[in-house]
Amino acid sequence: MDEHGATRPVTRRSILGTGLAAIGAGIAAAPRRAPAQAGRGKPFAGTTLNVSAWSGPYPKWLGDYVPEFEEKTGIKVNYETPAFPVYNQRADLELSTKGSAYDVLNLTFIYSSRWIGAGWFTPLNEFLSDPNKTAPDWEPGDFLAGAVAPLKDPKGNVYAFPWIADAYMAAAARYDLVEKAGLRMPETFDDIVKLLKAVHDKEGVKGFVNENHHGWTWIPYLQGFGGNVFRNPPEDLMPTLDTPEAVAAAEFYANLLRAYGPDGILSYTYDQALNSLQQGRANYITFNQAWLVQLGDPKKSKVAGTVNYSLMPAGPKGRFPGIASHGFGIPVGSKKKDAAWEFVKWSLSKDMMRRMLTEKGYGSITRRSIIAGPEFKQKMTINGRDVADLYLKTIDLAARGYMKYRTVHVYPQVDKQIDKAIELITSGQMSAREAMQKAQANSVADLKKAGVKL
Amino acid sequence: MSGGVANVAVGPRAAARLLRPGWAAERRRAFLIGLAPALVVLAAITVAPALYLLVTSLTPLSLVRPDETAWNFSSPWANFVELAGDERFTNSLWVQLRLSVSTVTLQLLAGLAVALLLNARSRFLGAVRATFLIPMVLPPIVVAILWKVLYTPEISPLHRVLAALGHPMRALITDPSWALWAIAVADVWEWFPFTMLMVLAALQMMPAEPLEAARIDGAGPWPLFRFVVLPLLRPTLVVAALFRLIDSIKAFPLIYVLTGGGPGTVTEVTNYYAFVQAFNFSYWGYASAITVVMVSGVFFLSWVISRLVGLEVDVE
Asked: What is the tens place of the pLDDT at every residue in A104-120?
C-alpha cells in the first residue's frame, strides 16, 4: 500500500478492519491541529475561489455549508453546480485552455483518463506531503482505494479525492405492489421482466424508469449479457458494440424502456427520473445508490415507506453493477492552488462528510472511518433493508476490474454513440442489430479520428 | 449606397477621396474618426473570431491532442472532404431546412394574422398586444423548459386536458415522426410576436390615402387586403422573414432542452451537430468546418433573398 492507501483492492473486511482500527486508535480524540494552523489567523482571507462541480447530491448540498467555510477562512467562494452534461462541456473546454477561471473543479469519472492524461489537473501529492498544508488527521488513506484509483495517474500521483463512490443498484419505489403480485426484488434479468409485467400500470404507476444517459445505465446489462464496450480496455480499444451479446442487451434494455417506462422516457434526465420515483409515478429502476437512497427520505419522497433495494440483478453471464467515482481537484491553470486545496480539504474532511451523512442523509460515503461508524449503518437502513451492505458488496464486485472501459480517454465519444443507438432502438427507428452496427462503425471512425491505433 | 455616413468604406478610391483637400473630404474624415472606435470593437469581437474560425476549419484541431493538431495545415481541406461524405451532416442540413421553412412560414402567417386582428387603437387591444409579446421576451431557456413540461405526459397540463377530453396524446418529443414538429410549434409560439410587432408597426404607419381610394372605388375587405395592404406590407414581411430565417438557423435552446437532437438524429440541426462535435468530442477543427459551411450558407441565402425582392437598404 502506498501512502494514500490506494493500491490495495478494497474489501469489506479491510474497510471494517481499518475502521475498527481507527476507532481503536481513538478516533474520538481531539483532532490535532496542523502546525501551519497553530498561531495563524486566516492566511487566505480576501482570496476569491471559483468552484464548479456538476449537480450530484454531495456538491449540491455542499453549497449549504459554503458560508461556514467562508466564515472560517475569510475566503470568498463563487460556487456553482450545473447539470452533468453542461458541467462537463464547460469544464472540458476550460481545462483544455489551461485557463485560470476555476480553482476547484470536479474530476468527472468519464473524463478522468482524458483530463489527467492531458495534464489538466494538479497532482495533489505536494500538498499531502507537506504537514503545513495537510494535517495528519485529514488522512488521505482513509478514502476508499477503489474510489481513489480512477483519480490517479499510472505513476500513482493522485489528482482529486472522491466525494462519491457511486454504486449502481436496484430499487422498487412501490415494493408493496411487488409483494402484492407475489414477487420479490429481482435477482436476474428474467426476474426484472417478470416483475415489470406484474406491476406495470398497477395503481397508475409505470413499471420502469431511468435517465436518458444510456452510456451509463445500459452498460451493466451489456456486461451481464457477456458483452463489453471495448475488446480489452485499456490496452485493446477495438469497440465491440455489434457483437450478438451487445445486440441482445440493447434489445432487452430498449424493451424495458419502451414497454414499461412512462411515455416520453427518452427525454428523462436524472432529476426527472428521480422525481418520477419520489412522486410514486414509476416503480422499478436500476441506478445509482446516491440518488436511490433519497427515495427513503420522508421529507422528499412519497414512497419513503414502501421503497426497497437490492443489488443490480445478474444477467446470463453474471452481475456487473457500475461504479463511478468523482472527486474535487485543482485545475493546473489555477492561480490560487493553496487556497483551493483548503477548500478541497474542508469539503472532504471527516467532519464534513459525517455531517453530509447525518444532516442530509447522503449515502455514498467514501471515507472508511465513516462507513465503519454506527451512523452509516443506521442511516443506510431503509425500511429494514441494509443498503450499506449492498453498497459495500457492489464496491467489492467492481474490484474485479470490469469498469476499465469507462476511464478510457475516448470513452466520451463512444458514450454518445451508445446513447444514440438505444434511442434509435427504443423509438422504433432501427432494429437493435442495425443500430448497434451503426454505433460500432461510428465509434471506430471516431476512435481513428482521435488517433487511437486499432 | 449613396454618400454620407454610409460612404466611409475604405477602398483605393475612397482613400483618394479622403486625402483630397476640401470640405467634403474633411467631413468624411470626421465621420471616419467618429466611427473608428466602433469599427475597432466590431473587428475585435466579430471579424477576429470569424477569421480564427476560418483558419481553425483548415486544421484537425482536437483539444485532447492540441500538440499534434493545433495549427496543423498539412491537409487543409480534409475536414471539408470528410463533411461531404458525413451522413450525419447531410441529415442535419435536411433537418435544418425542414425546421427553418416550416417555422418561418408559420411565424409569418401567425404574426400577420394576429397583427391584422390587433390593428386598432384601443386600450384593451394595447393590453392584448403586450401579452402577446411575453413569449419573445422570456429567456430562451425558460421557454424551452416550459415546453419540456408541456411535452412530458407525466406532468403536462396539456396532456392531462387532452386525456380528460378523451383524446390522449403520445409524447411528441420522443416520437421520431413528431419530434421536429413539436419543436417547430414551440419555436413558432416563441417568435411569431416578432413578425407581429413588425407588421403592426408597418400597419400603423401605412398611408391612409390608398386605402381610402380603394374603399371609395368599392373594394371589399379581401380585395383591399390582397391588392392594397399586402403589397404595402411586402418589404416588412421580407425583412421579418429574413431575420427569422437567419435566426432559425441559430435554433439551439429548444433542441438542447427538449430532444438533444434525438430521438436518434431526427431533430439534430446543423448548429447542434457542430456543437456535439466541438463540445462533446472536442473536434474543434471539424466543428469549425461545419460552422464555416453554415455561415456561408446563411450569407448566400440572405443575398439571394435580398436580390429576389430587390431590397434596397438606404441608410441615408
From this structure: 999 999 999 889 988 99
Cβ-based contacts of B279 with chain A (< 8 Å): 89, 92-93
Residue-wise pLDDT tens digits, B89-123 = 999 999 999 999 999 999 999 999 999 999 887 88
Q: Is B138 exposed, middle or buried (0-12, 13-18, 19+ CB in 10 A)?
A: middle
In angstroms, what CA-CA distances link A249 with A171, A191, A199? 20, 15, 22
Torsion sign, CA atoms A275, A276, A279, A284: negative
The reply to whether omega before A234 is within 30° of 0 (cis) is yes
Q: Which residue has the cell 409485467?
A: A197
> Three cell numbers at A177?
405492489
- Chain A residues inside the 8 Å CB shell of B91: none
Compute CA distances A51 → A46, A77, A99, A102, A379, whole Å. Answer: 16, 7, 14, 6, 29
- Of A391, A380, A212, the C-alpha closest to A294 is A380
Residue A354 distance to chain B (closest CA, Å): 35
**Per-residue pLDDT tens digits for B210-234:** 999 999 999 999 999 999 999 999 9
User: Pick from B152, B260, B281: which is nearest to A446 by CB?
Assistant: B281
* Nearest residue to A393 (alpha-carbon basis) of A140, A129, A168: A168
List of chain B residues whose C-beta atoms are within 8 Å of the C-beta of residue A429: 176, 263-264, 266
Kindly report the CA angle at A122 between A409 and A85, in degrees rounded to 5? 45
Residue bearing cell 490560487: A336
Pairing of strands A282-288, A206-208: parallel
Q: Which residue of B has its CA nearest to A446?
A: B281
Angle at A421 between CA A420 and CA A426, to 5 degrees: 100
